[in-house]
Amino acid sequence: MRKLAAGNWKMNGMSVDLAEIAKLIDAHPAPDCDMLICPPTTLLSRMAERAAGSALQIGGQDCHAAGNGAHTGDISPAMLKDAGASHVILGHSERRADHGETDASVQAKAAAAQAIGLVAIVCVGETEAQRDAGTTLAVIGSQLAGSLPATLATVPDALVVAYEPVWAIGTGRTPTLDEIAEVHSFIRDTLVKRYGAAAQEMRLLYGGSVKASNAAAIFALPHVNGALVGGASLKCADFAPIVTALAAS
Ligand code: PEP
């Protein structure tokens, strides 16, 4: 399986920051893993134009489940694809919290993204209170059951699950390596039960305060097939070493 280093720029990035993309492409002309940046929509098509012909892939941070229509401010999967995206992040905890996204809405978006040929990166993760209460695996199991599309549409590569403990996002804190391994192994088992043996080939990403200094240890864990990176994806100097660590893992 080809591993995936994915960067989520969130609501960060101006025209001037496209220079970081040029540096990233120079730093990794042919990495031994997939390399993805998901910029804000305002930069998406310009970033895709700069990345054309390079190893860098571009993704959206959300999409609507409908193909078109009266949905002010929303973007359809086809629009993302038309702008040059190959992937889309769905159900990020910030969207679940800020925009009331539910498992059902994430599932509908994931199905719509798959139908148009976008790789859907579906995010799941427990809050700190849920971890403290010992319900992490129950929470993740329920999010997987409700958020993932009913079938693996085409190939296992087209659906990615990102495990992102909410309390580890942007905080500098991470679960222990054992805790990450436990959840990833649970996710793999759950996916195999749901989709069959093909799910062994699905990429499972860890996300939450990944940086150059902890990347190699996390990537050495079983069933960790890449990372979804927020803060450390904004600058090439921070993200390029993470791509290097993943390619070497
Ligand atoms: C994220 O937003 O998906 C994320 C993992 O952020 P950070 O790397 O900044 O914790």
β-strand amount: 15-25%
| Arrangement of strands in the largest sheet | 1-2-3-4-5-6-7-8
> Which residue ranges are poorly predicted, with pLDDT under 50 across at least 5 consecutive positions?
none
Query: Which whole number gives the mean pLDDT?
Result: 96
- Number of H/I helices: 10
Secondary-structure class: alpha/beta
How far from one another are the termini?
12 Å
CATH topology: TIM Barrel
CATH architecture: Alpha-Beta Barrel
How many domains comprise the coordinates? Answer: 1
Biggest sheet: strands, sense, closure? 8 strands, parallel, barrel
Q: Over all CA atoms, what is the radius of gyration?
A: 17 Å
* Topology order in helix (H) and strand (E) letters: EHEHEHEHHEHHEHEHEH
User: Quick one: CATH class?
Assistant: Alpha Beta
| Beta strand count | 8
Bound molecules: phosphoenolpyruvate
Q: Supply the CATH superfamily name.
A: Aldolase class I
- What is the molecular shape? globular
Helix content: 40-55%
Can you offer a commentary on this structure?
The chain has 249 residues and is an alpha/beta fold. The chain has one domain (4-248): TIM Barrel (Alpha-Beta Barrel), CATH 3.20.20. The chain is built from ten helices and eight strands. The protein has helices spanning 18-27, 41-51, 77-82, 93-98, 103-116, 128-132, 136-147, 177-195, 212-219, 236-248; strands at 4-8, 34-38, 56-60, 87-90, 119-124, 159-163, 203-207, 226-229. Strands 1-2-3-4-5-6-7-8 form an eight-stranded parallel β-barrel, surrounded by seven helices. The mean pLDDT is 96. The structure holds phosphoenolpyruvate (PEP). Residues 8, 164, 169-170, 207-210, 228-232 line the site of phosphoenolpyruvate.
